[in-house]
Write a structure and sequence with these properties.
Largest interface: A-B, 77 and 77 residues
Radius of gyration of chain A: 20 Å
Strand order of the largest sheet of chain A: 3-4-6-8-7-12-13-11-10-9
Shape of chain A: globular
Structural class of chain A: alpha+beta
Number of strands of chain A: 14
Strand content of chain A: 15-25%
Order of helices and strands of chain A: EEEEEEHEEHHEEEHEEHEH
Oligomer: homodimer
Chain lengths: 331, 331
Amino acid sequence: MSTLRQDPTTRQWVILAPRRAARPHEPVELPRSTLPERDEQCPFCPGNEDQTPPEVLRLPDDGAWRVRVVPNLYSALGGDGPAPRGGAGPFREMPGVGGHEVVIETPHHDARPDEMSLREVTDVLRVWRRRYLQLLARPGIRAAVAFKNFGRLAGTSLVHPHSQILATPVLLPRMQQRLEVATRYFDENGRCVYDEVLDAERAAGTRVIAEGERFLAFEPFASQTPFETWIAPTTHRSSFGDIDDGETRDLARVLRRVLAALRRAAGDPDYNLVVFSAPPSESDEDAFHWTLRVLPRLSTPAGFEVGSGMSINTVAPEDAALALREAARTE
Amino acid sequence: MSTLRQDPTTRQWVILAPRRAARPHEPVELPRSTLPERDEQCPFCPGNEDQTPPEVLRLPDDGAWRVRVVPNLYSALGGDGPAPRGGAGPFREMPGVGGHEVVIETPHHDARPDEMSLREVTDVLRVWRRRYLQLLARPGIRAAVAFKNFGRLAGTSLVHPHSQILATPVLLPRMQQRLEVATRYFDENGRCVYDEVLDAERAAGTRVIAEGERFLAFEPFASQTPFETWIAPTTHRSSFGDIDDGETRDLARVLRRVLAALRRAAGDPDYNLVVFSAPPSESDEDAFHWTLRVLPRLSTPAGFEVGSGMSINTVAPEDAALALREAARTE
């Protein structure tokens, strides 16, 4: 029989209905990439820098670059300036001001995050932090999200390793809802609900995948989808924007380990990486705790999920965690 | 430049960033199905009735059936009985009681909703209503959703026409949120926000696709995805459970027209059908208005959507509505 579990950080229930057929398979060795190290047609490859808009950041400042940030050529949002609300009757609209940037993570067309060096992944996370803070500091910006789409099912068609940061002139519904739940929890219990979750996950142990010096990786108790993974700072931090250099390095270490294990344990799935964070120095900083989430695209949300907002997960997080721990060990 | 639009029924903003390449294409004639009328391997085909659990409803009661309802062999939820909350620390869980049924919509393996007769589609909608009401009447059930997954991208692998009804022992987050917004709107304005939307859509006309005697089909002002379509009763009704026989017939007429137009205008996309409804006789019945929504799967939600809960839509609803109206006219 299935069970329902409630995510204490959102108060939403998920239906956990594990199926034998959907069980994690044995770790497999995957063939290496057949991509070239450089693709002449790729706008993100070295030598094609003129095919992107002018860069807003590069590492290092001169010479051959390791990381570049450019405005998205197909920006969903862009430009500064006022964002007055308009519209008629019950309808409201406003101009799409904001920012939408692409982080080109490496000059190597055939690189993958799980194979990139610790230094390379650390560089990318530091660039995320810098652009996240700079975009949030722009007038009129209310929220920003750093994310990565890995593979077609995760919403990308460009294989050259890249991620994105999108900054919006309105608050984000999913973040608002999480902040509300966390604030109410803090008000009632005098403690951050995420800190409670981290303590409970460590005590249970069954869903933990890896622990670094400053970060814990685990499958959440009420995982919405197979192999959903959270990486959380083990000391209380409400904003990704406040991460320091030592922390980015430890985060990179844990992230690489999780991604390599995921690749072997779950058959190299497409996935999204998303930073769930409050803006820095918010009043909710005691109540909220940021996380970096790995969201593999191993299932398709159907009519029920779309209509109800409730998920049906066919892989128990304890089974997924076991498979990931084993894959990490045999690496 | 893109614009942001707010859905007055959820107060959520969507980013509307139309792209030339994503524009609706010209209506096309599609090849007819190459499926057989009956497939010996299909558990939903006549002659294979013993491959499903015993039916809970059939039309007609005896002789050859036109519609059958059976419990889902892979039930996400099932069984009656109490649903006590358990769990330790911050974690809550409960047994997965509830109902999960499959509506086998026709004996014909190769049928499609847009090609089924008016009588056939009407039959299916009446069966939805009956099972929706019966599941909601069971002890411990708090909510139910009738939905259909058409095609692989919409979450199904069985081609034989079927839909599902899932009844849960907890409220559904998306419905709760819609009821809250509608109730607050009613409290402030003394009117159902959906009635305001229907009046405004009729007055604007640019997003209307078809109007029956009792139903209006339109692309909502703040469409989340390309070709998202709402079909709403034109007189105030809060629950799908209260639909009468004349209304099911008119709804079937409008739905068939929308699905046929969608097939021609948008290249035969996979889609979900979902009934967004309050349970019958709720206290919110003045504030809420049920809709049947057609949600084509023409885009992939990526990291930003997953993380923020905000959508980026690349097709303006006015363009989609124009294409659908033209496809409906040249039928």
